[in-house]
Amino acid sequence: MKCQNHPNKEATKLCIGCGNLFCDDCITVVKNKNYCKDCIVEQLEKKEKEIEKEKEEKKEEKPQIIIQQQQQQQVVTKEGFLDQTCKVCCAIIVIIIIIWVIAVIIAGSAPR
Predict the structure, then answer these.
(1) What gap in Å lies between CA 55 and CA 51, rounded to an integer?
(2) Are 3 and 21 in contact (CB under 8 A)?
(3) Which of 38, 50, 77, 103 lies deepest, with the highest CB count within 10 Å?
(4) What is d(CA 61, CA 9) in angstroms, rounded to the nearest whole number?
(5) What pLDDT is attached to residue 42?
(6) How far apart are the first and last CA of the chain?
(7) 28 CB contacts (<8 Å, ≥6 apart)?
(8) What is the distance between the alpha carbons of residues 11 and 34, in angstroms, rounded to a whole number?
């Protein structure tokens, strides 16, 4: 049998991609498997498309994650704000009670 690309050379290897016979010069071994140059190009193009698809899927995922994180931060901020407001209100109430108690004591000890 002759090489698919070189009719003057004997075919020594079979490409597992296309099934054609080739000489040693036309075959590339990848992970112990024989590929012709056309099949290698085809495999690389297929892999490039898979990588591009994965990149596009990741681009679509990122905005959703960012939106979810922003929403969680807003909830935490609102809860934090309410906690701070409660603390301030409680402090004001305590101060008013202390002032009232002082006023009662002063009013009670004042001569009549």
Answers:
(1) 6
(2) yes
(3) 38
(4) 53
(5) 93
(6) 130
(7) 34, 35, 36, 37, 40
(8) 13
pTM above threshold 0.70: no
pLDDT by residue (tens digit) across 18-38?
999 999 999 999 899 999 999
In the numeric block, the tokens 């969680």 are attached to 72
How many angstroms separate the most distant Cα atoms in the chain? 131
Distance CA 37, CA 26 (A): 7
Greater confidence, 89 or 41? Answer: 41
In three-state form (DSSP H/G/I as H, E/B as E, the rest C), the secondary structure along 33-55 is EEEEHHHHHHHHHHHHHHHHHHH
The structure tokens 């297929």 sit at 46
Residue 30: which of 17, 20, 19 has the closest Cα? 17
Instruction: Give the three-class secondary structure for 11.
Output: coil
